[in-house]
Amino acid sequence: MAELKTAPTKASVAKFVAAVEDEARRADCAVLMEMMERVTGATPVMWGPSIVGFGSYHYRYASGREGDWMLAGFSPRKRDLTVYVMAGFQGKEKLLARLGRHKTSAGGCLYLKRLADVDLAVLEELVRDSVERLRRAHPAG
Question: Which of 57, 58, 37, 46 is nearest to 17 (CA)?
């Protein structure tokens, strides 16, 4: 079975965030780090070269494929700030309608231009709900 290309690394989260060129994007990263650390209870870890992840869970599909993935995370991409809502958005239409300016993907990616465009309480609720659903679906042990 092939290993995932994106996995936790020993790279410094602080150095990664400090290297974000855009000052506003760097400030948004600090807000997301504080929020995700509070929601997950986990310290940030680099997943691959460009994702800041929080916590992890072990998944196993009916096909036999299994692995470990982050509970929540973000990446300050050039075009958008990508927030990883790992449990996805199904059933979250009302929350998304209240969030503010955003785009989503089927895979649980939430694309934001900047945090000033969204309601941070709604964003935190989306992240918290996702983390709770993942913990129920994939209990440790």
Answer: 46
Structural domains present in the chain: 13-137 (3.90.1150.200)
DSSP-assigned beta bridge partners for residue 85 = 72
Q: What tokens were used for 115?
A: 């945090």
For residues 77 and 56, is the Cβ–Cβ distance under 8 A?
A: no
What is the per-residue DSSP string for 53-115? EE--EEEE-TTS-EEEE-SEEEEE-SS-EEEEETT-STT-HHHHHHHBS-EE-TTSEEEES-G
Per-residue confidence (pLDDT) for residue 1, from 0 to 100: 44
Largest alpha-carbon pair distance within the chain?
Answer: 44
- In three-state secondary structure terms, 25 is helix
Q: Cβ(137)–Cβ(60) under 8 Å?
A: no
**CB 96, CB 81: distance < 8 Å:** no
pTM of the model: 0.92
Q: What is the pLDDT of residues 61-83, one digit of tens each?
A: 788 888 888 999 999 998 999 99
- Measure Cα distances from 87 to 95, 110, 116, 127 in Å: 14, 12, 24, 9
